[in-house]
TrEMBL record:
Residues 61-71 have a biased composition (Basic and acidic residues). It comes from Cyclophora tenuis (Marine diatom). This is HRDC domain-containing protein. Residues 27-43 have a biased composition (Acidic residues). Residues 129-182 form the HRDC domain. Coiled coil: none annotated. Pfam families: HRDC. One of its GO terms (molecular function) is nucleotide binding. PROSITE patterns: HRDC. InterPro entries: HRDC-like_sf (IPR010997), HRDC_dom (IPR002121), HRDC_dom_sf (IPR044876). Residues 10-26 have a biased composition (Low complexity). The lineage of its organism: Eukaryota, Sar, Stramenopiles, Ochrophyta, Bacillariophyta. Residues 1-71 are annotated as: Disordered.
Length: 182
């Protein structure tokens, strides 16, 4: 585990003693000083001095990104397409993602905002004419075209609720359009 309590790190890591000999001159023949060094545990996660102590009693790794050498790629991007197994996996992954992103068309008649506005118009508390409906259809077509262009779901462009509100209120300017709350 990368984040171990301090007491478990001490038991997981083993401490060994390394010796070094340094001589500065022939007259200086002092005994070598032993240096303590800590080895990595079996998993290779413990790095001496590489942790910062938090108040919660756990050790967390420090950021060594500025000290690490830049990584070199083992393979160039143009060579990846030559790996048939890799391309098979990528193709399957793309099809699975496509399945997740493929949705049925949203039915306008099942939209609560739309049905609410129609009911108010029938009760005389609002207005919904054929020109409102034509505008809404044009807005939905615009949204679908934009979604196809950017290869996203239409709902990511804007919601049907927003388009229904725009068709109902018919803002005369961009500023009025920005003020719409739905």
């Amino acid at each position: 585990n990368l984040f171990l309590p301090k007491d478990r790190v001490a038991s997981a890591a083993t401490t060994t003693t390394a010796t070094t000999t340094t001589t500065t001159s022939s007259d200086d023949l002092d005994a070598p000083e032993p240096l303590e060094a800590t080895e990595e545990d079996d998993m290779g996660y413990f790095t001496p001095g590489g942790e910062t102590d938090d108040d919660d009693g756990y050790l967390t790794p420090r950021d060594d990104s500025e000290h690490d050498p830049p990584l070199k790629s083992l393979m160039e991007a143009k060579d990846l397409r030559l790996q048939s197994d890799l391309m098979t996996v990528i193709t399957k992954s793309q099809y699975r993602c496509l399945d997740l992103w493929t949705t049925n068309q949203e039915e306008l008649t099942k939209n609560e905002q739309f049905t609410s506005i129609l009911q108010r118009a029938e009760n005389g508390k609002g207005q919904w004419t054929s020109s409102h409906m034509k505008l809404l259809e044009d807005l939905i077509a615009w949204r679908n075209k934009l979604a196809e262009k950017y290869q996203v779901l239409p709902a990511m462009i804007c919601s049907i609720d927003f388009l229904v509100t725009v068709a109902n209120k018919r803002p005369p300017s961009e500023e009025a359009l920005r003020r719409i709350r739905y």
